Structures are given as structure tokens and as C-alpha cells.
Amino acid sequence: MITIKEIAERAGVSATTVSNVLHGNTSHTSADTIEKVKKIIKVQNYVPNMGAMILAHSFSKIIGVILQYTTRGAEKTFMDPFEGELLSSLEEEIRRNGYYTMLYVATSVSEVIALAATWKIDGLIIIGLQPDECGLLRSSTTEPVVFVDCYFNHDSNEYYNVGLADREGSRAMTNYLISMGHKDIAFLADSNNPRGVDRERLEGVRQAFQEHSLEFSEKNFISISRDENKRHRILDTLAAAPADYTALFFSSDYYAFDALTYFVAKNIRVPEDYSLAGFDDNVFSRAAHPKITTVHQDVSQKGALAVQMLLKLIRKESVPENNIKLPTSLITRESTGKNPNK
After folding, report:
1. Which of 14, 85, 265, 294 is the most buried (most CB within 10 A)?
2. Can the peptide bond before residue 290 be classed as cis, meaning omega within 30 degrees of 0?
3. Which one, of 67, 91, 66, lies nearest residue 79 by Cα?
4. Number of C-alpha atoms within 13 angstroms, CB side, residue 305?
């Protein structure tokens, strides 16, 4: 493999100049020289020694991406297309800006804090922490941190986040179901006491009920399990008594798709027996039969904006908006219809 010294000789410049081009320190280097060095680097497929770069500089050009692990029984963390699309967008934007991605799936917030303290990285992007966990992490690290899809407690920490108008999206979906004649609506999420994103989506359902002078009771929220076998036992109950509800609104397309396929096997018709809706507008909602009515979000934009925000923090630039809430839109498809009893 070609060395920096050999690149310098071919370009007719010093090894220091080549090193500066590699590391982006080109304020005192002419455009022609930069182009000449980059061309040789590309032709010769030069690969920099990352270990040497980290030791020689105060920066590493590495951005850590940490995802909080949530188990769904036998299903793996990245089986949900939401995580796959988000991580693809993050990696692409990180690479486009000349950085490298270090990905880790953590099992606890203490593990996240330990990694943040021991990794030599320029910044962190954190996905999936709950409000108290965000506060603990923010208080425990001095590295630039951008959160994705997080909600925060009112404390003294300064947070940077790229999220979604979750409550507004959920409210729009519930208003749509009510407009189709549904009053017996259940919102389903994988927690007995939803926090963060799911809590906001639940609050959107409550708000829509209130706007239509409908009572929201315990009956209108169903806690489903992340474990497939336990979740399907709950779906068995719904399949046995479809008259209790006319519409089921799941907190994600992942769960909506799972319910749809399970109901088909139980001869439950969608949307005749149940109108069924999800949230995210990912490949599951589009590949299902019938296609699933859902709330659209631009996951790729979310990832790109998170990286751009973090780079501003790394460069100590001003960040005009520290808590971005991307808009949602309602996508109506064949899995929902008018209440047949109306």
C-alpha cells in the first residue's frame, strides 16, 4: 500500500501537506495542490491508518451511534424497518461529511454512559432512551450529543433532539377513524405505562376523543407485549370478541402488520371486522394485504438532520433549533373503512 511519503513525492509536495489534506486542514493549501493530492489518493486507493490519526489529533472523525436495545422475543433489534431506514440514513450522512460510524446496541443506560466515557469519538447520536435516561446520560458526558425520538424531563440539562410531531400524527389518525364512524377505538402499544414516543401518541388519541366529546377510558388502551407469543394471546382475545371494538390503532406499523397477518389466519376480516391502522408508513404498511392505513414520517430526513445538528455542535457552531419536531401526514389505505354498524 502506498505511503504518505510516496504520495508526497508523486505530488511534489511535503508529507505534511499530504497529511493536512487527509485531515481536512487545508486553509493554507492551494486548490490545485489539494486536487492533485486527492487525485493520487483516489487512484492509489490509499487507506489512512485510523489508529494513527486518533493518536495524532484531538479528534477521531468517528461518530458513535448507540441504539437502546428492546427485545421482541425471538425477533432481532433491526427486524423493524424503522431502525434499518434510520440507521442507513445516519450512516450515509455521516460518511458524506467525511466521518466514520461506530454502531453499538446497548442493553442499559449505564452501558451507554460507560461507552460514552471510554470511546474516543467526536460526538454521539442516541436513539430510543426514555426521559430519565436522557437526563442521566446528558449529566454524565461532556461529548456533543444529539438524541433521536426522545422526550425530556424539565431539568437543567441542555438537550438536542430530532423527533416527530407524534401527538399531532396520532390525533389526526384518531380524528380520521372517528370521522369514519368509529367510536369503539383501541390504541395498542407495548407498555403498561407508555413513556416517550408512545405516551405522546397515546395523548394524541385522548385529545381527539376529547375534541369529539367522547369518553376515553381504560378500555381504549391495550398494552400488548413485545414477546410474540404473549402478544398473540392478546390478539386471540380480540379475535374472539370483535364486537368490543370496531377500530384498532397500533403504535407502529410493525405491530399493525403482525396483527393483520394473525387476524387473517383467524378468519378475522380487515376492515370489515376491524379497521386497522399503524404508525410510521414503512415497508410493512405498503407490503401488507390489505395495505395498512398509517401515519407517515420521513425517517431518512430525521437521520440526516440529526447528523447535521451534531456536526454543528462538534464545530461549535450555532444550532438555531435544538428540538426539531418533523411533521407527519395521514396515509389512508385499504385496512380502514367506515363503521359497518353506522
Report:
1. 294
2. yes
3. 67
4. 21
Answer for the pair 174, 211: CB distance below 8 angstroms, yes or no.
no
Q: Which residues contact 215 (CB under 8 A, 6 or more apart)?
A: 209
The single residue listed with the C-alpha cell 502506498 is 2
Pairwise CA distance, residues 210 & 256, whole Å: 24
Assigned C-alpha cell, 172: 389526526
Question: With contact defined as beta carbons under 8 Å apart, do 186 and 220 qualify?
Answer: yes
- Cell for 289? 394485504
Residue that the C-alpha cell 477521531 belongs to: 60
91-126 pLDDT per residue, tens: 999 999 988 898 888 877 788 778 777 777 899 999
C-alpha–C-alpha distance, residues 339 and 105, integer Å: 43
* pLDDT above 80 for 262: yes
Look at residues 116, 124, 128, 68 and name the one whose alpha carbon lies nearest to residue 311. 124
Q: Pseudo-torsion of CA 87, 91, 97, 101, nearest 10°? A: 110
The residues pairing with 3 across neighbouring beta strands, listed in sequence order, are none
The helix or strand, by DSSP H or E, that contains position 207, with its residue range, turns out to be helix 196-211
Q: Is 272 exposed, middle or buried (0-12, 13-18, 19+ CB in 10 A)?
A: exposed
